[in-house]
Every structure is written in C-alpha cells, then in structure tokens.
Amino acid sequence: MIAVSVVFVAAASICTLTSAQTFQRLALGCVLPPDQADFLAGQYFDIRLEVHAPVNGSEANGGVPDPEFTFTIAKADEPAQAAATYFEISEPLLEQWNFTWYEDLFAQDAHTPSVVRVTSKIYRRVALYEPGEYVATLTYYNGTTTVANWLVRALQEQKRAKNVILFIGDGMTTNMITAARLIGHKSINGKYQSKLQMDKFPVLGHQMTHSLDSYVTDSANSACALYSGHKTSVNAMGVYADSSADPFDDPKVETLVELLTRIWGSAIGIVSTASVADATPIALTGHSRSRYTYGSLVDQALHGVTNYTWTKYFGPDVFFGGGAEQFIPGSGSYQGKNYYTEFSDAGYTVSLNKTSMQEVSNDTKALGVFCTSHLPVWLDRNIYTDVLSTNKNDPSGNKKPALDLPGLKDMTLKAIDILVARGVEKGFFMMSEAASVDKQMHALDYDRALGDLLELDDTIKATIEKLKALGELNNTLILVTADHGHGFDVFGSADTEYLSSKTNDREKRNAIGVYQNSGLSQYTVTNASISYNTGVNFPANWDPRYTLAQGVGAHPDVRENYRVHKSPRVPATNITGFPANDYFVNPEDNPDGIIVNGTIPTYEAQGVHSLTDVPVFAMGPCQELFGGVYGNIDIFFGMAECLGLARGSNATG
Amino acid sequence: MIAVSVVFVAAASICTLTSAQTFQRLALGCVLPPDQADFLAGQYFDIRLEVHAPVNGSEANGGVPDPEFTFTIAKADEPAQAAATYFEISEPLLEQWNFTWYEDLFAQDAHTPSVVRVTSKIYRRVALYEPGEYVATLTYYNGTTTVANWLVRALQEQKRAKNVILFIGDGMTTNMITAARLIGHKSINGKYQSKLQMDKFPVLGHQMTHSLDSYVTDSANSACALYSGHKTSVNAMGVYADSSADPFDDPKVETLVELLTRIWGSAIGIVSTASVADATPIALTGHSRSRYTYGSLVDQALHGVTNYTWTKYFGPDVFFGGGAEQFIPGSGSYQGKNYYTEFSDAGYTVSLNKTSMQEVSNDTKALGVFCTSHLPVWLDRNIYTDVLSTNKNDPSGNKKPALDLPGLKDMTLKAIDILVARGVEKGFFMMSEAASVDKQMHALDYDRALGDLLELDDTIKATIEKLKALGELNNTLILVTADHGHGFDVFGSADTEYLSSKTNDREKRNAIGVYQNSGLSQYTVTNASISYNTGVNFPANWDPRYTLAQGVGAHPDVRENYRVHKSPRVPATNITGFPANDYFVNPEDNPDGIIVNGTIPTYEAQGVHSLTDVPVFAMGPCQELFGGVYGNIDIFFGMAECLGLARGSNATG
C-alpha cells in the first residue's frame, strides 16, 4: 500500500472527527467498527485499527506512527483480553502506508496537502455472539487510547416472517409522495377519491439517513446501513472505510443477504430500474470502499467475496435491472470477462428483454439485463415513447435501442413467481428499487421522478394482489422506504401559457400561483385531445396548462418553465468548455423559462441529496417494529429480528 | 349585499371548479357544505346555496340567476325532503348579489372582469344526528342539479381521554424536524446520543393539508380542518366561503372548542407565540371568511358568535400570546373598545408580562397578552437578546420594548396549572402553537425557525414531565403536528469563512460542501469563546464556521451566506419604490452572500407555503387513531372520537 491523495470522492471516514469539515480523515487512533456501532449477534465483521502520524499540518506529531499499538476487547465488566486471544485467531501482521489530504478549501486552493503516515492491523471475519455491551480499546503512543463502545443487540433466532420484501424508492421523500398523489389521484373538494397503496399501509415510521462521515448520505452508505446495520462513509458499501488506497481491503460487515443465505438458505431477489451494479442493488452483497468499482461488485454478486475468507455466496435467485456494461466483455466487466457467460455457466437463465424474461422458467436462477445504463423511466416507456428509439442501449452492446423493456412492475411480479417457486418453505427476501425517483430528481426532471414514484406504488399494489393470489401475503413483511431525500417540494401552480407569453423573467414569475392561486390539480382532468391511457392512479394529463410549480433548494444554474419535458432533462451543461467541470444553464433546456442561478458548487451539474428523514411504510408480520422515528440501521435490525438471523454461537454457518 | 371584485385574497371557494386556476369562483350551482363533506353527528352547521348567472365571460348564460331553485335532503335510500321540512325550520329568505372576477391572468392584465349575478339562501344552525350517507340536491334552471354527497361518521359519545393537548408547530415539516435534531442533539459516528421528545412518541402519522380551493393551504383553512373536520378556502376559518361580500354571513361549522364547551363544559386553553388573533389560535372559535378581521375574531373568542344563533361560548380559560393591537382600544380593536377591560369585566385576570402571568391564581380565567404583534422568537429571547430592546412592542401600547417575555414553555406550563385546576373532572383541551416556525420560515430565517422548533420540543418534554407530576399523563392524549409545510431542506454545509473570502458568486458557491463534504454538525460542538448556556437539546454554538447549507425552492430574490442572523431577517425589500409591491434582494441582508433570484411572483416578499404532508406524533389514550396517512380533517374526527363529542340526538346543548 502506498501514499494516496485523499480528496473529495476518496475522503476517508472518521472514528473521531478531525478539525476539517469539507475534507475528513481518521483520527490519530482509530478503531473500525467505530464507537457506537451496533451488531447482530453472530454477524461477521472485520476490525481495522489505524494509528496516524501527521507529518505536517495542524496536528503534526513527528510523523512516526506507533508500530507497537495494542488492542483489547472486554465484554461488560469482564476483564479486557487481547483481541487475538478473545477471538482465538492469530495476531495479524502490521501494515503501513501514507496518505495525503487537505485540511480545508483554502489548503486545497493553495495546493498544500498534509501528509499522514499510518500503522495498521486488521482482524478478519470475527463475530460477537453474546448480546450486551463491549469495550474495544486501542492503546498507542505510550498510553493514548481510542475506545469504541459496541452493542450486540438482543438475540432473535426464530423467524416471524417467511418472506420479506423491501421496496426502496431511491431518494423518495414524503414531499414527493404528496406530489405524486396529487397528480395521480383524483380529489373532490379536498377529499381524495383514491389513495396511494403506500398510504394504506398500517404502520408509518421515519428513518434518519445520516452516514458515519456526513449528515447527508449517498446511496451506497445508506444501503450499507439498511442491509447490514452499520453506517459507513459516503461511496462505501459493506465495509467501513479505512485510509488505505486499496478499495477492497477495508473492514467488512456481513449483509442481510449473506446472513440469510448462510443461516436459512432463503431465495434472494434483487430487482432495480437502475443498473444492477448501482449502489442500492449491488450493496446487498457488495464490499468495497468505492461504489464505482462496478465490475468487481458484479463479480461479488455472483461469487461472493473471494479475496478473503468470508460468507459463501453464489448469487441471487433473481437479478433484474440495467447495467449491461458490466456484463458485455470489455473495459466495464471484471477482468474483461463475459458476465452473461459467467452467470449462464453458474446455472442462470439469461434474459435481455421483457418478452424473454416473462417466458423464463420459475425453477432456475434468472439474470435479466435489459439495457446498458439505467432503465428508461416510466414516462418514456409509456408516454413519450419516441425517446426510446433515440437510445443506443441494447444490452447486447450493439448500440441499437433497447425497445422490449420491462418496467418495475413486470420485473417485480416475475421475480415473485421465481422466488416463491425457489424459496419454497425457506422463504425469500427481495429488494425492489425504483431507482429513477432519485436519478430524475438529480436531473431536476420532476415529472419523470414522480412518474417512477407512481410506478413504484403501482408495483406495490400489484405485489400485494399477487402475494394474496399465491397465498403468501400473510407470510410476508412488506416495507417501503427510501435511502435519503432530495429537498423537493411543490409551492404552487404555474400558468404555463402566461409564463411562456412574457418576455422577461420578473414578468414570467407572476405566472406562479401561490396559496389560493395554486388552485387544484389539473393532472387528473382528462384532456380530450390526448389519450394517456396508462390506467387509474397515473395522471390523465401530463401536460396541462396549469402545472405544478415545484423545485428544490439546491441546484445548479437552471431555467424553469414548469412544463413536462418531452425527453429527459439536462438542466446544466459546460457551455464554456473550460474548466472541464463548470456548469451553466443548458441553452437547450426550457428556453422560454425563468433562469435561477445555482446554490451549489459550480462543478455540480445536477441537484444533490438532502438531509431529511424519509418515511417507512410497513405491513405484515413484525410491522409494529417499524413505527415511530429511528435510524436507518434499525431497518436492518428489524428485518433481522423478523427473519430470526441472530445467532448466539458459531454452530451455524 | 353588493357587487364585489373577487381577486387574490378574496377569491371565493368552489363546489365544483370553474375553468380558471389562479382565480376561482363557485360553480353555476353550489351547495355548501359541498360534495364529499364529512360531519360529526350532532355538529352544528349552516347550509349556503348559490345559483350563478355569469353576465359575460366563457360561461355567460344571460345573467339572470334562478330565484326559484329548490333544495332537498335525503338520507341513504329514504325519500328526499325539502330541507326546511327535514330540519323543521322555516324557509329562509332569498338573497341576491353580484360579484366580479377574472378568468385568468391575461384577463386581469387586460382589466376585463367577468360579472356574475347570484341568487342564494342560507339555512342556519342545523345538524345531522344519524350516522350514514346523505344526498343534498340543489335544483335550478328547470332541472339542472348540483348534488352534494355528505357523510355523517359513526357515533362515539363516550370519552376515552379526559384531556387533549394539541401542539401545533406552524409550518413544521419532517425536513425541519430533521434539521432541528441535527443542530440540537449530539451524534457520535451517526448515532444520536439524545433524541427529540417528539421522536419518542409511539405513533406516527402523516396528514394531507390540502384545502378546498387549493392544494396549497394557508393556516386559517388548515386550522378550520383540524378544529372542525371541514376543509374550507384559503383565509377562511369556521365557515365555508360563499361569494357574498360580507365576511361574517358565510355558512358556519361548529368547532371542537364549541362542541367541547357545549357537551362537556371542559376547560379550554389557547396558547401561541403568535398574536392570539392569528389564524391558528383564533380559529378555535373564529367564524369569518377573512382571517384578517382580527378585532371581530377576538370578540368572538370572548363572546362567541353573536350575529346569529349559535353555540354559546364565553371565552377560553387560558388565552396566552401576543397581539396587543386587538386589545388596546383603537383602530385594531373591535368597535374601538378596550379588550383588556372587556376580558377583565368577564372575570379574567389579565397579565401583560411573564412575571405577572406566573403569579396569576390557577382558579380564575387568565388572559396574557405579552406584546404587540407576535412574540419575539426563542433565539432573540435567549441568544441575541440585544434585539429585544430595539422593539416597540410593549402590550400596553406605550411604544417601549416588551422585555419581560414568556416563551412557549412558560406559557404552556402555566396554562396546564390553570386548566387542571379549572377543568377538574371535566378535563381540558389545550392548543399550544409554536407559531414562528412558520413565520421565520417565511422570512427565510432558518436558524430562528429551527430555534422555535427546538423550543416546541422542549415544551413538549416539559409538558410530559408536568402532566406526570400532576397525575394527568395517562389521562391525556398528546398530539404534535403542523398545519402545512414550507419546502425547506438542508443540502450540505457551508464553509462561511471561505464563502465570505471570495468575491464572486460562482467562487462563493464552492464553499458549499455536499455529500461527504457536508461533514458533521458543528452546532453541537462547544465554542470555547461563546457560552450559549441554553441547556441540553439546544445548539452549543449557533455560529460555527461550518454551518448548514439550507434553503427552500420557493423564495423572492435573496442573498444567502448561510450564517445565523444576529437580528431577525428581512430577505427582500422594495428598493425601487414603484410599483409598491415589487421586491428585490434587501441590500442590507447578507452583503457577503450569494445572490439567488426568485422563483415566486415579484410581489411576494417572503417564502410561501408548500404542498407536503406533515407529520403527526401521538401518545396517550386513542394514540392508535393517528397512525398512517390521512387528511387533516381526520385529526378533528380523531380528537372528537377520543373526547366523545358526537351526539345522536339534539337532547344535549
């Protein structure tokens, strides 16, 4: 391991925060899992220790990291033991590396990095079986200590639900749900004539999404929290982020899917409208400091972790989504191999379009990769379908458009058929993700985001009906939640004719109706000249004169006319050419709109994630575990309790 | 009644929406309460009928409204009866008036109003006692009908809770709660070391806040929904809005406080950090088409409705807040009378400061008016106290500053003492409002809004402790909710030193840290040089270098530097002088900040309300009624069920 520059994307996580805010590094002494970590009894994890010696900068201490540090574990009031003794493993070798980082933005502008030298050890694949409190102590520099207080939660070894389905609306907030309901469901005098399926769930909770290193999370580390009960750093999954350069040597935590495979052998389904290598689906089995190591993560999804001894894993029973780049042999695939062939050789039937997917036998493992990149969104698959033929996203890689595309509902219902058939009495777990709620919010393409939110709700409704028909509804815990938010809301209506007719921005702004001038939703009023014909619970008209005035507080320079975009939106572009990441209003986006200058760094071309707690809707066995307000890790512990995944000894697996 | 121009503030509500969006009027035939209205069995209400004859405009029909219209009521499958027969009252007289309105913004710009002639009747103080569905039918123009389907909900005549406390964080959203928790509660490695009191409530719900005439509500009509189970129009309370000019002749609905007084004689407490005449407190007993009829509404708060036969009401037991303008004799008070004297003459002890309030006997009715306008916010009463002496808000009207001011907690705890003493076995109802969450969000003064949100939470915590000490906790349903939202969220951090050091806006924007660069909350880190000393669960530092990057999507022209404002914020001003309502960035606000041009009409000087569903936290008897997703009217029906306020006959009251 060698020196690395720790900036932006590769910023290290923290045990205790050093003084910087924008840039972070581990403290002088660091234990990972860190102080305040919670564990499922019997869950595998690695322990990384680091001792830092800053060479320069505000904490410079001579630059010689202690190679003689010691580490002990103590349960409750029992005496502390050397970790190798406690876990009955041999003492790991000492590792050493250097890295550099910036203490703040002024240091970055001045190109004055700080250098840190590191000594480190890692204890691999250990577990704590007995519930209770533990104290893990790192001692270094002749008596300095870093103490981590750990909690192993109470045991639940019995299953209370045969199946669990976790729906994730990526980036979905209560505000978006409110807006989607308004455009998709008819209201008379303030009373809705129908509700969203998620509105009908009996239990509601809020989860706090903050990550270890930041109060605003990304989808990788929030997925890690949801799937493993361990919060990590932005862009990491299935590992705590250490300061070394290698993204695959970081200390791992065992995921729900690995636990479920090891303990019950249940069927596993992973469905997403994103690339299957995208953070939310791939974090179910992925262990990497970087969510961008796509090819390796797809290999882990099939073969499990192979560089270290870890839970055996041989791929999900259902794996549906986009992301052909990691399957077509070449630069995007792991070691350049053909992953269609790899999956096929491992017993998977492989579908590259909706028709083929629906004909697949329910008895074999199924891989479905329907396009390169992410799946086209509901609005383009159902309303503005001309968009589809402009794509070059055929999953074979032939640069032709993928036209025979499933939606989230198609994939999810087929997955249930397979999971019920293959899970039999062992039950199943499925994660089904509406990924483009997030992706289209990033693009400030609110209609496309809300369309995919309504598609998610339609999928949940169809799932409940299907489970009922299969006799599995009462056996199944269904959760609907998100991984983080975007700061979206609706603040009125826009008279798009008036807005377009005016020639200066201040006059255009008077087209916005607020309070009583917001009026009522025109999206549910049938437009005689256009048949949208997408069924109830979707808008009857996507392009009314009076639209939602909606937006976010954090955005690049944009121009808004509040009309539906007939092709996917690109709000900001680099119009000057230099520097490379310097974004202004896209000259082609909404030329008749109101320009609003940006509120985030000029190198951001899109909207960004936000702080807000996100909703959790629960129905089925254990639903009562998901009411009230709690952390994202509690979703993992709730599912683990419901599935009886804790173990008080290492007799299993 | 004479012709009135129906524009902006005075826009009429709808039964069925006419074609316009920004401007609205009642349909050709109109029944109020309208189609889809729900009723508590035995709840008093008035019925307004209107028949419209547009003289010109897109619906012109000759301009002669039908004077011969008829109106019938039918329960379920029973035969329809003339309403006067059904309710055993005499047929009301025919009324006639005209009004004008604009069909859209183009018509407004062209000054081409449409004229509508109206015939109308109103049936006053009726009630439906038998649960079930009713059909109300207005027949006009030789057979045209407007049908209203009404539902009287199931009866609950028995009390399940002795007391109900309804806390309202005006404008408070989940996003704001998340941000307040982040600045007020310490987190270690992503795990909070303490939580908000509201986080600990066992039941969580979401309420939809839409009003009758608009999907974005104001605080008057949302208060009407919460307190009476009837959604009305923006700026109306306790009435459905008809199209006549008189704001006091509109059809009324009976409120929770009126029902509780009539049926159980319980003690009533009304506490707010706003003027007591502001919409949220005054709507508990107010009946007016216009929330701006402050003096009249204060008179109603003391004497009840006096212009028509209605539920007898003699004022709340506790009435604490600001708003001295309506008490000091003069232009702000009803008929120029001295309302301190009016209340005193009615048996109230009157307090004009905190010291006096705290010394009041718990046995008598108490009025506390602590300043003109709204109470100064928590941040100014506790941190930036120099602000207080710059005010001219003494409640005596002497133009001196009010300095001996209670906060929400002081007022609420004293109110409980009085309500417990006066309610005795009859129990009590209290509404306690943190009004400036909303008011400071309007001013885009996020720190002041979040400070008042934390004060609300601190008040809830102290309330629970006090009820426990008084032996009343298990008798009391506590609800915490809001009336609407603002589109607020946090999207990262701001390095205020870096931002301030740069000279152009694009460079300043790079001070914003998003995702991992958001880092951790610096508000909970003690600042050695400043003692804030406001106790746990409030920020240890309101002015750190790294602040929250936060904002809304809907705002006037503003300039943001993301620092705390040491005096209350005024984001936009009229710098050109003409036209009168034309707002630009306030030159004195954040001169070192980033300018962001507005997204709402240029005549709006502040941020505006938003669409989002808002949270409901419930604990105590009947808490289970408040889980899941429902309308704001269901809060009323839940409280009414818990308090046993339905009546199956007119034997009571």
From TrEMBL, chains A, B:
Alphabetically ordered keywords of this record: Magnesium, Metal-binding, Signal, Zinc
EC number in record: 3.1.3.1
InterPro entries: Alkaline_phosphatase (IPR001952), Alkaline_phosphatase_core_sf (IPR017850)
Cofactor: Zn(2+); Mg(2+)
Active site positions, chain numbering: 219
A single GO molecular function term of this UniProt record: alkaline phosphatase activity
Positions contributing to Mg(2+) binding: 170, 278, 280, 433
Binding-site residues, Zn(2+): 170, 438, 442, 483-484, 609
Signal sequence, renumbered to the chain: 1-20
Pfam families in the record: Alk_phosphatase
Record text on cofactor binding: Binds 2 Zn(2+) ions. Binds 1 Mg(2+) ion.
Entry's family note: Belongs to the alkaline phosphatase family.
Protein name according to UniProt: alkaline phosphatase
Source organism (scientific name): Lachnellula suecica
